[in-house]
Design goal:
Layout (H helix, E strand, L loop, with lengths): L5 H5 L3 E5 L8 H12 L4 E5 L5 E2 L2 E4 L11 E4 L6 H11 L3 E4 L11 H12 L2 E3 L5 E4 L4 E4 L7 E8 L2 H14 L3 E6 L8 H10 L5 E6 L5 H12 L4 E5 L13 H5 L2 H12 L2 E3 L2 H11 L9 E6 L2 H13 L3 E2 L4 H10 L10 E2 L6 H13 L5 E7 L6 H18 L7 E6 L3 H9 L4 E2 L2 H21 L14 H13 L7 H10 L7 E4 L2 H13 L3 E7 L12 E5 L2 H18 L7 E7 L6 E10 L3 E8 L4 H4 L2 E4 L5 H9 L20 H15 L3 E12 L2 E4 L2 E5 L25 E4 L5 E6 L5 H8 L4 H8 L8 H8 L6 E8 L5 E9 L5 E8 L8 H15 L4 E7 L3 H9 L3 E4 L6 E7 L1
Parallel strand pairs: 1-2, 1-5, 2-4, 5-6, 6-7, 10-11, 10-12, 12-13, 13-14, 15-16, 15-17, 15-18, 18-19, 19-20, 35-36
Antiparallel strand pairs: 3-4, 8-9, 8-11, 21-24, 22-23, 22-24, 25-26, 25-28, 26-27, 28-29, 28-30, 31-32, 32-33, 33-34, 34-35, 36-38, 37-38
């Protein structure tokens, strides 16, 4: 698993520091002093071959000289010594190393590669190199050279920048925000962002995860981990390099629109990660998510002593998509009785500038009890009439009482004391009330909570491999593309594009390729015979944008006009682009739809995330208008609708004045088909449909460009190699016949299976649960089951079995691969009353076949010695069974594939 041995690194019982320097101003000395100041509770050893003691701490010459085996080895030694130190630590049995030092280099023969090889030999995990270190307040470990140690709390920070991590610590110290862990990952030699997302997602001490990202190395692994984590807790990211240009100059409009940062934005959205633009927003997110749970809705009540600031808060709330809460009749009656007659009578609840602490308390108590709001924001503008500090104290006392009365779930309560001094901030922070310098920040904080709740709902949707009603001619389409590549071409011809679109049931105007003037006239006559008009376009593999050379002529109605226009187009193209290969002209029926909308749809290829679907407003000025949105495939109709809704042109798809609405889901269905085409034909590099005309009758492609090339495998594992997100693998659905004609239906697990799992576990005895989970299991929480069911099939798979006759769940088997996708760990559980009927054997064979298809080399598992039935089955399936050297009650089972 990607969390393999991470607990040993992030919550170690013993630590050794190798390379601490005697120099007062050095990284090694700073790390030593920080470990000492944090008062690490486990065993600690200092290793330095040149000094017997450093800073009053005794040192030994090597790891072998320690009288204990350190779980974590922290390395600040020179780069040249690091591979040897890791090898020595591995021989001693250390679980992993934190490499703070820099300078390991990259590439074959580098110290970087030597360190990796040494670690893999012993199954060690590595954090770093070139990093600030780790800070784990829960175990009093500060193995970093940061200036301060954060307090314990519920936020985890994963940062590619040591400076950002250090800055977060300083900010948190001022605001009273604590952390469950801070990890600076540096060059990610082994442990990466995805591994740490997995770890903190499962950490019960962590309420929310903050990320600072500069780039992502393994997009599929990141998407898998981020989606899994975001389903159970908020994940917030700030990414640098937002203004960076794309990795290459794109030849198509969709390629130009799909800039690098726009693709990251689409990836974060698909992963359910909340993206913020800068550190201030990240701090605000930390302030909110570290203190309160998400609300059940987005209706916000605002309590204020200043009408202006209250109205500003309402304006920002509406702008960000929130809803100003109404005040119920019962609550209004109570407010009328408690407040002076000059109060606002509506939301924002303005209790007037002379409001004192008791008036705030009376109004807040009513709003907290009112069911017409989902959260309350308390604003205060300091006056000379009432003490802002006294009001803050009263509010926090009331909040404490309210939360004590509603322990299972309490409404979020946020605050903004404008111009507050540090004492007021401390009062609010110590009471766990998120507080902000302005009303704008506070409203944004509320909307972060709302967005997280919406994200969880969105992530529960599982896009199918393709819509059930859509069956493309993928084989025929693939033949078109592979023939072009075999011919040495990088672009499809227009007629080939028409056949490609037909294979995926996407309508395109009648299109013909004419090599000379007379052939163009002949094709035009066919169009005239059907009552149409003609458009001519230059046909050249070297002229991508036809209008650049005047290569498009519209509204031709006679053969003579076609003859003259063809001659002009060919002559103009040869004059302006003498080096270009001119193949003739494209003859198309001209579609005149006065009320149709011009759209652009297509596919782009991103170097990090692979295939990207692009949608926006089309036409010749598409880049200038820049009204576009991106999404990672696969798509279903709902995801396609969401993609459309993120553009301004989506408003024009609805009816207005005398213009009928575009046919429902016609555009969305084309997006779904394009996403499926990207899965079926990875040889497609870029795809442009511009314009796609859309009106009440449907959609028609007018012009398209398709760039092709040999497929590039970006991601390991099965499924489309150019997709960062795996589709639901419907191809693994099975119907099995077991003993006594028992018929079973098996399919991959889905997020909506959570209630089914709960019901299934009621039919598993405590003894069998202990054999599966290695401990008595009295309760299965939502969070626990969510982690089992929320798969995206990239690194984890679970097959769930149902009795076809009753529809009841009868068993489950799962596999989770390691971080380098070489081995997987399995687990299996059956209904206790249905054991002995061949189901376990069938599920184990299925998961073995799946592992082989994924390219894994080994399947392993831990089995209690008393679980003799499982051990016997493993032996029959070819597993090697050995006692676990560290756990006498456990056997390690391993199958080489």
């Amino acid at each position: 698993m990607s969390t393999y041995r991470l607990n040993n690194l992030l919550a170690p019982r013993s630590v050794a520091l190798v390379g601490a320097s005697a120099r007062p101003v050095s990284v090694g000395r700073a790390v030593l002093e920080n470990i000492h100041k944090a008062e690490f509770k486990g065993r600690f050893g200092l290793v330095n071959p040149r000094h017997a003691e450093i800073g009053g701490v005794a040192a030994v010459k090597s790891l072998d000289s320690l009288d204990f085996v350190p779980e974590l080895v922290v390395i600040t030694a020179p780069a040249r010594e690091i591979p040897g130190i890791i090898d020595q630590a591995g021989r001693r049995g250390s679980a992993g190393a934190l490499i703070v030092s820099a300078g390991l280099g990259h590439g074959p023969g580098s110290l970087y590669e030597a360190a990796i090889a040494a670690a893999r030999k012993y199954g060690m995990r590595l954090i770093g190199p070139n990093c600030l270190g780790i800070m784990m307040p829960g175990v009093s470990l500060n193995a970093s050279f940061a200036a301060h140690m954060p307090g314990a709390g519920s936020l985890a920070l994963i940062s590619q920048s040591g400076a950002i991590a250090a800055g977060m610590v300083d900010w948190a110290a001022q605001r009273g925000v604590g952390f469950s862990g801070i990890v600076s990952i540096g060059d990610q030699i082994d442990v990466d962002i995805a591994d740490l997302l997995d770890y903190f997602a499962m950490d019960h001490k962590t309420r929310a995860i903050l990320l600072y990202i500069e780039s992502i190395k393994d997009a599929r692994k990141f998407m898998s981990a981020a989606r899994a984590a975001a389903r159970v807790k908020p994940v917030v990211v700030v990414k640098s390099g937002r203004m960076a240009q794309g990795a290459k100059a794109a030849a198509t409009h969709t390629g130009a629109l799909a800039g690098a940062d726009a693709v990251y934005d689409a990836a974060f959205r698909r992963a359910g990660v909340l993206r913020v633009s800068d550190l201030r927003e990240l701090f605000d997110c930390a302030e909110t998510l570290g203190r309160v749970e998400s609300p059940t809705g987005k209706r916000l009540a605002i309590l204020t002593n200043g009408g202006g600031i209250g109205v500003l808060a309402i304006d920002r709330l509406v702008e960000l998509g929130g809803i100003p809460a109404t005040i119920s009749a019962e609550a209004r009656k109570k407010l009328d009785a408690a407040l002076p007659p000059t109060w606002s009578g509506a939301n924002p609840v303005d209790i007037v500038g002379d409001a004192d602490a008791s008036r705030y308390a009376a109004a807040l108590e009513v709003l907290l009890a009112d069911t017409d709001n989902d959260a309350v924001l308390v604003l205060n503008v300091q006056t000379a009439i009432a003490s802002a500090a006294e009001i803050a104290t009263t509010v926090t006392e009331l909040v404490g009482k309210y939360r004590a009365q509603h322990r299972s779930w309490a409404k979020p309560i946020l605050a903004a004391w404008v111009g507050a001094d540090q004492h007021i901030i401390q009062t609010l922070s110590s009471a766990g009330v998120p507080n902000y310098p302005t009303e704008d920040d506070a409203v944004r904080g509320f909307m972060y909570l709302v967005r997280h709740r919406e994200v969880v709902e969105e992530l529960s949707q599982v896009p199918p491999a393709m819509p059930d009603t859509f069956v493309p001619d993928a084989r025929g389409a693939r033949q078109i593309v592979t023939a072009a590549i075999a011919d040495g071409r990088e672009w499809l011809e227009p007629v080939e594009i028409k056949h490609l679109l037909e294979a995926y049931d996407i309508a395109m105007v009648p299109t013909y390729a004419a090599t000379d003037v007379e052939q163009a006239v002949a094709y035009a006559k066919e169009i005239f015979a059907q009552g149409g008009t003609v458009v001519l376009k230059i046909m050249s593999r070297d002229i991508i944008h036809k209008s650049d050379v005047g290569g498009v002529v519209l509204n031709l109605t006679t053969p003579e006009a076609v003859r003259a226009a063809t001659s002009d187009i060919l002559a103009r193209a040869r004059k302006l682009r003498p080096e270009a290969r001119i193949g003739g002209v494209i003859v198309q029926a001209m579609v005149v739809k006065a009320k149709a909308r011009e759209l652009i749809l297509g596919l782009a290829d991103d170097p990090t995330f692979g295939a990207v679907v692009v949608f926006g407003r089309g036409g010749t000025a598409v880049e200038i208008i820049n009204d576009k949105a991106l999404a990672l495939p696969p798509l279903d109709l709902q995801l396609a609708r969401d993609l459309i809704d993120r553009t301004r042109v989506s408003r024009l798809l609805k009816a207005y004045r005398d213009v009928p609405a575009v046919k429902q889901d016609a555009v969305a269905m084309v997006l779904v088909k394009l996403a499926q085409m990207a899965a079926d034909i990875p040889e497609i590099r870029e795809f442009d449909i511009n314009p796609l005309l859309a009106d009440e009758t449907g959609v028609t492609a007018v012009d398209a460009r398709v760039a092709v090339g040999p497929p590039q495998r970006k991601f390991v594992g099965s499924g489309p190699a150019n997709f960062a997100v795996r589709a639901y693998p419907s191809q693994w659905e099975r119907r099995l016949k077991l003993k006594d004609d028992w018929r079973i239906f098996v399919r991959p697990m889905r997020p909506e299976d959570e209630p089914t799992i709960h019901e299934f576990l009621r039919h598993v005895t405590p003894h069998d649960l202990r054999l599966r989970f290695f401990a008595p299991m009295k309760e299965f929480t939502h969070e626990f089951i969510a982690r089992l069911t929320q798969l995206d099939y990239a690194r984890a798979m679970a097959f769930i079995a149902f009795d076809e006759a009753t529809g009841e769940m009868v068993g489950v088997v799962r596999l989770h691969s390691d971080s380098i996708y070489e081995s997987g760990e399995y687990a299996i559980l059956l209904r206790s009353d249905l054991k002995g009927r061949g189901l376990g054997w069938a599920l184990m064979q299925l998961i073995i076949n799946y592992a082989k298809s994924e390219g894994l080399k080994v399947i392993s598992g831990d089995v209690l010695k008393e679980n003799t039935v499982m051990l016997e089955m493993c032996r029959h399936l070819g597993f090697e069974v050995k006692p676990d050297p560290a756990e006498p009650d456990i056997c390690d089972v391993k199958l080489k594939l």
